[in-house]
Amino acid sequence: MKPLYIALLPAAGLLVTELVGAPAPWRWSFEALLIATAGFWLWRRPRAMADTGPVVPMADGNATDTPTAPATPLLKEVGSILTAESASTAEEVQRVVGLIHESVTSLASEFERMSEIAKRQEMVVTEILEHSSGGGENSVNVRQFAEDTSRLMEEFIGILTSVSEQSVEMAHHIDDMVENLDGIFGLLDDAKSIADQTNLLALNAAIEAARAGDAGRGFAVVADEVRSLSARSTAFNDRIKAQVDKAKEAIDHVNATVNAMASRDLEVTIEARNRVQRTLKAVEDMNVFFAMKIGEVSELGDEQVAAVSTVVRSLQFEDICRQSLQAAEIGLDRMRELAALLENASRNPDAELSQELAAARSRWDGQRHKAVAQQDMDSGDVELF
Amino acid sequence: MSIEVKKSSDGKELTIYLDEQFNFAHHKDFREAYRNESPGMRYRVNMARARHFDSSALGMLLLLKKHAGGDKAEVILEDIPGEIREVLEVANFHKIFTLR
Description:
The complex is a heterodimer.
Chain A: H1 2-20, H2 24-52, H3 72-132, H4 142-211, H5 217-262, H6 267-314, H7 317-347, H8 353-378
Chain B: E1 4-7, E2 13-17, E3 21-22, H1 27-35, E4 42-46, E5 52-53, H2 55-68, E6 75-78, H3 82-90, E7 98-99
Parallel strand pairs in B: 2-4, 3-5, 4-6, 6-7
Antiparallel strand pairs in B: 1-2
Helix pairs in contact in B: 1-2
C-alpha cells in the first residue's frame, strides 16, 4: 500500500497548487515538476529495492524474490496517470504560451501608445513654455503690458506735476498783476485828490470873481468852467476805478481756476500706481510659478518615457517564459516516454525496465546539461531577470 | 500757523519750514520766502510738520528749484513723513531733489 500512497502525494500536491491559485506560468511549471518528481520516485523505487534488498515490503509483502512482478498493475496505473496528466499539463502549457504571447503583444502595443502619448505631452509642454516666455509673435506679453502701464502712469504723474508747476507760476504772475492793479488804484486816488483840489480852487476863484463885481464877471465864467472840469475828472476817475474793480473780480475767477488746475489730489493716482505695481508683481510671480511647474511637468514626461521604455524592455520576459515552458514540455515528453516504458514493462514482465530507465536517464541528463549551458548564455541579454 | 523761514548765520543757507497743510493757498507765502533771495543761496525745505501734499505742493517745490538755479542747484528736502515720501517718490522727486 505504501508505494501507491506515496505515488498519490504528487497528485495531492497538484491539487493544493490548483486550490492556492498560484500565477499561471509558475503553477504549470510547478505541476510539471511535481509530476516529474512522482515519475522520478517511481523510477528510483525498483532500483532502491534492488540495492537494499527486502527493506521496504511491496504490496501484499511478498515482493522479495521478484521485485517487478507484483508491481505490474501499479506500473500500468502509474503509466496511464502519467500519460493523462502529462497530456493535460501539455495542453495547459500551450495555453499559457498562447496567453503570455497574446498579453505581451497587447501590453507592448499599449505601452508603445503610452510612450507616444508621453512624447506628445512633452511637445505640448515645450510649446507652452515657448509661448509663455514671449517667443511667439502673437503671444500676449503680460509683463510688457504691465510695464507699459507703469510707464504711462509715471508719465501721467509727470504731466500732473508739470501742470501744477505751471499753474502755480501762473498764480504768481497773477499776483504780480494784482499788485500792478493796486498801484493803479493808488494813482487813481492821487488823481482824485487833484480833482478835489481843483474844485476847491475853482470855488475860491468864483468867490473872488463875485467880490470884484462887474470887473470879475469874465473870471467867474472861467472859474465855473474849471469847476465842471474838475467834476468831469472825478467822474472819469470813478469810472476807471469801477473798470479796475471788474478786472480784479475777473482775476479772482482766474485765480480759482488756476487753483483747481494746480491742486490735484494725488491719493487716487498713487493708489492706481500701487495697484499696477502689485499686478506686475503678481504677474511676475505667476510667470515664475508657471515656468517652474511646466519644467516639472516636462521632467515628469521624461521620466514617464523612460519608465515606459523600461516596461517595454521588461516585456522580454516572454522569451524567458517561453524557454521555461519549452523545458517543461520537454519534461512532459519525458514523462510520456516514462509512461510508455512503464506500460511496456507492465505488459511484458521480462523487459529490462531498469536498463531502459538508465539509458533514458543518461540521455536526458546529457540534454539537460546542454540546456543549462544555453540558458546561462541567454541570461545576459535581459538584465531584469 | 504758516510757513516759517530761517537763514543760517553765514546767510548762505535758507531753511523753509512747512506747515501741516501745504497747498495752493500757501503759494504766495512760499514764494515770498525765497522770492528776494539772490542766486547762489542754498535751500532746505523742512517737512517735519507737513501732513498732506497735493500736486500744487509739488509745483511749488519745482518753482523753488527753478528759482535756486534749476538742474545745477541742490535743494534739500528733509524730515519727510512716510506718506509724503511716497508722494515724492511717485513723482520721481528723488531724481530732482535731495531727499533726507
